[in-house]
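FAQ

Q: What does a record look like?
A: Structure on top, sequence underneath. For example:
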């Protein structure tokens, strides 16, 4: 599959949108900012929504084009866990020591159970506490990996028609349960529909449409119309897939391509970079805008630095060297020459 630079840059944009939302919310929680955070929370929500779109698109693209379920599942595991698992361990080791939130007063059995819940990414799809902030979205990712595999298998020729219907009903039941728990998970379906639309159509409108579509999605989300955002999101992501328009040009720049590369580590690690500022900035009694500016600039620098290290060390070197299955080189078949025979004179 050729790399779609617009989708890659969109990852970076989404990670930065979530970052901005968390700068404001953590500044408010830290006691050095007073404002209505709804506008920036919507920005963070849309960042997560578009991450879901990207996942929905890439899941179906991978399964349809390659059809290797085992490889798909393995690739997803080695993509998610190498960064997530160390953070989970750090939180369960350091959390009780620094008296962090709900980790402060756990019994031994609660400690073990909650670690197991986190290990299997159950917080999010179930009403459980999360240790790694933002990780609840990964729970929905894994739920839809499961649903996608179930539907993919059900669409294959099966000898038992009852098994086919069982898989379809099971997939629908899991989908319904997840959507009831979190309606915004429907943005996975947006990415799936956009994939099929991009395969069937080649309609290219004005180059401003993708940017306008993103603005409309923001306004719809701001005013609480999630389902309009989901429906309109299909058109938005269709244009992203086609790499068409002004927004595509912006997302293809080196800035967004870089943040697209480190986006997963950045998404999980930036709350760790912002947390110290949340704890200490209120003590300096600075004006709100100064405190928030320091939090934003210094937090962005620290988050980018540790995310870059995480990407290079864990996502790139460790995963590529130790976890990715090496492809066997294809040896060209050279026909064995026929034995020479001496002609009879």
């Amino acid at each position: 599959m050729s790399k779609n630079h617009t989708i890659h840059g969109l990852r970076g944009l989404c990670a930065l949108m979530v970052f901005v939302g968390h700068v404001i919310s953590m500044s408010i929680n830290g006691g050095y900012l007073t404002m209505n955070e709804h506008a920036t929370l919507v920005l963070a929500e849309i960042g997560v929504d578009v991450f879901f779109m990207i996942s929905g698109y890439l899941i179906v693209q991978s399964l349809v084009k390659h059809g290797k379920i085992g490889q798909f599942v393995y690739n997803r595991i080695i993509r998610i866990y190498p960064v997530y698992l160390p953070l989970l361990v750090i939180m369960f080791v350091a959390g009780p020591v620094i008296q962090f939130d709900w980790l402060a007063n756990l019994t031994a059995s609660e400690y073990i159970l909650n670690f197991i819940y986190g290990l299997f990414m159950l917080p999010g799809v179930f009403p459980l506490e999360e240790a790694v902030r933002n990780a609840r979205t990964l729970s929905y990712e894994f739920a839809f990996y499961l649903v996608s595999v179930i539907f993919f298998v059900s669409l294959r020729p099966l000898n038992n028609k009852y098994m086919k219907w069982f898989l379809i009903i099971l997939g629908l039941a899991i989908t319904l349960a997840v959507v009831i728990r979190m309606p915004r998970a429907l943005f996975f379906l947006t990415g799936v529909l956009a994939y099929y639309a991009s395969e069937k159509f080649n309609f290219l409108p004005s180059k401003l449409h993708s940017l306008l579509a993103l603005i409309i999605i923001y306004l719809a989300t701001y005013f609480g119309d999630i389902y309009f955002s989901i429906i309109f999101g299909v058109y938005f992501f269709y244009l992203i897939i086609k790499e068409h328009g002004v927004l595509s040009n912006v997302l293809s720049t080196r800035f967004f391509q870089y943040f697209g590369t480190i986006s997963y580590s950045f998404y999980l690690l930036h709350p760790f970079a912002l947390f110290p500022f949340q704890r200490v900035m209120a003590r300096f009694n600075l004006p709100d805008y100064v405190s928030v500016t320091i939090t934003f600039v210094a937090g962005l620098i620290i988050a980018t630095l540790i995310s870059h290290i995480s990407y290079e060390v864990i996502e790139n070197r460790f995963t590529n060297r130790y976890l990715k299955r090496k492809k066997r080189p294809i040896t060209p078949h050279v026909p064995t020459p026929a034995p020479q025979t001496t002609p009879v004179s």
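Q: Is there anything notable about this one?
A: Residues 341-345 have pLDDT under 50 and may be disordered.
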